[in-house]
């Protein structure tokens, strides 16, 4: 017996909102109509739009847009988590960045978001054993966006990298969910040793501009690292650290530092910093 129930399209509120914002943006600024149509309105899903942006931004004489588009489409088709992570990243940026007023802004204009989505494709390639292609993506992301994330690094959902200039995340680094970091952050090693040598960042951590976190150390969940700090020792959960080298100067001050984005050192023991 034939099924007479109507086929319902899956609900995607993030993509629906982006399309609505894109249509309004074309009316408000017709000169961007070509870009907005090609990047957003011509696509049936956020994943297809992200694959297009990936190919447009990373294409060069060494690898064409068509090949990069096929790579990205394959990745998004094989791993639905890539699209869900992108949605979480968009919502994180919209919620935490006061300069972000629409969902379409990260997709079209924010290099931090675009770099992270490209890293996610590179990470998928790495896990598929396609290491040289993953390295190629890393190289192009570094050249185009000034963001150098090793494809083996593990990064959770809801990441916001504000301004995203001179970001370095090493091979064995782990970044949890709902982390926020600003420009010039390094999650690096302490020398030329091999093996597990990079930081492990817990959920909900806020890392200030220019902070360097070095070595195989754990930064506890919902902690804060003040701008310009050099962190060489493990940080317990829900603490604030500051200085060179960094030391604990107080509590984190709130339940979700990465969401509140409050980087002021209030009521901290900072006398000898």
From TrEMBL:
<dbReference type="InterPro" id="IPR001451">
    <property type="entry name" value="Hexapep"/>
</dbReference>
<protein>
    <recommendedName>
        <fullName>Serine acetyltransferase</fullName>
        <ecNumber>2.3.1.30</ecNumber>
    </recommendedName>
</protein>
<keyword id="KW-0012">Acyltransferase</keyword>
<keyword id="KW-0028">Amino-acid biosynthesis</keyword>
<dbReference type="GO" id="GO:0006535">
    <property type="term" value="P:cysteine biosynthetic process from serine"/>
</dbReference>
<comment type="pathway">
    <text>Amino-acid biosynthesis; L-cysteine biosynthesis; L-cysteine from L-serine: step 1/2.</text>
</comment>
<dbReference type="InterPro" id="IPR053376">
    <property type="entry name" value="Serine_acetyltransferase"/>
</dbReference>
<dbReference type="Pfam" id="PF06426">
    <property type="entry name" value="SATase_N"/>
</dbReference>
<dbReference type="InterPro" id="IPR018357">
    <property type="entry name" value="Hexapep_transf_CS"/>
</dbReference>
<dbReference type="Pfam" id="PF00132">
    <property type="entry name" value="Hexapep"/>
</dbReference>
<dbReference type="GO" id="GO:0009001">
    <property type="term" value="F:serine O-acetyltransferase activity"/>
</dbReference>
<dbReference type="InterPro" id="IPR042122">
    <property type="entry name" value="Ser_AcTrfase_N_sf"/>
</dbReference>
<comment type="similarity">
    <text>Belongs to the transferase hexapeptide repeat family.</text>
</comment>
<dbReference type="InterPro" id="IPR005881">
    <property type="entry name" value="Ser_O-AcTrfase"/>
</dbReference>
<dbReference type="GO" id="GO:0005737">
    <property type="term" value="C:cytoplasm"/>
</dbReference>
<dbReference type="InterPro" id="IPR011004">
    <property type="entry name" value="Trimer_LpxA-like_sf"/>
</dbReference>
<dbReference type="InterPro" id="IPR010493">
    <property type="entry name" value="Ser_AcTrfase_N"/>
</dbReference>
<dbReference type="InterPro" id="IPR045304">
    <property type="entry name" value="LbH_SAT"/>
</dbReference>
<keyword id="KW-0677">Repeat</keyword>
<keyword id="KW-0808">Transferase</keyword>
<feature type="domain" description="Serine acetyltransferase N-terminal">
    <location>
        <begin position="14"/>
        <end position="118"/>
    </location>
</feature>
């Amino acid at each position: 017996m034939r099924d007479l129930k109507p086929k319902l399209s899956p609900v995607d509120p993030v993509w629906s909102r982006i399309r609505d914002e894109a249509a309004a943006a074309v009316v408000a600024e017709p000169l961007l109509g070509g870009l907005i149509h090609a990047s957003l309105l011509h696509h049936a899903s956020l994943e297809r739009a992200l694959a297009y942006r990936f190919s447009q931004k990373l294409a060069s004489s060494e690898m064409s847009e068509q090949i990069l588009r096929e790579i990205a489409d394959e990745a998004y088709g094989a791993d639905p988590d890539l699209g869900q992570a992108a949605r979480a990243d968009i919502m994180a940026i919209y919620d935490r960045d006061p300069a972000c007023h629409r969902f379409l802004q990260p997709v079209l204009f924010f290099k931090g978001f675009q770099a992270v989505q490209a890293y996610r494709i590179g990470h998928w390639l790495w896990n598929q054993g396609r290491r040289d292609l993953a390295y190629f993506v890393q190289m192009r992301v570094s050249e185009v966006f000034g963001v150098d994330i090793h494809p083996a690094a593990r990064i959770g959902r809801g990441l916001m990298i504000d301004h995203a200039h001179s970001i370095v995340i090493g091979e064995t680094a782990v970044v949890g969910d709902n982390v926020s970091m600003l420009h010039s952050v390094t999650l690096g090693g302490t020398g030329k040793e091999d093996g597990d040598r990079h930081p492990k960042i817990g959920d909900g951590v806020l890392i200030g501009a220019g902070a360097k976190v070095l070595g195989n150390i754990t930064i506890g969940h919902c902690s804060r690292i003040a701008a310009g700090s050099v962190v060489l020792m493990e940080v317990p959960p829900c603490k604030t650290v500051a200085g060179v080298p960094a030391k604990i100067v107080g509590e984190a001050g709130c339940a979700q530092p990465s969401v509140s984005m409050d980087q002021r050192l209030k009521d901290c023991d900072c006398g000898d910093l």
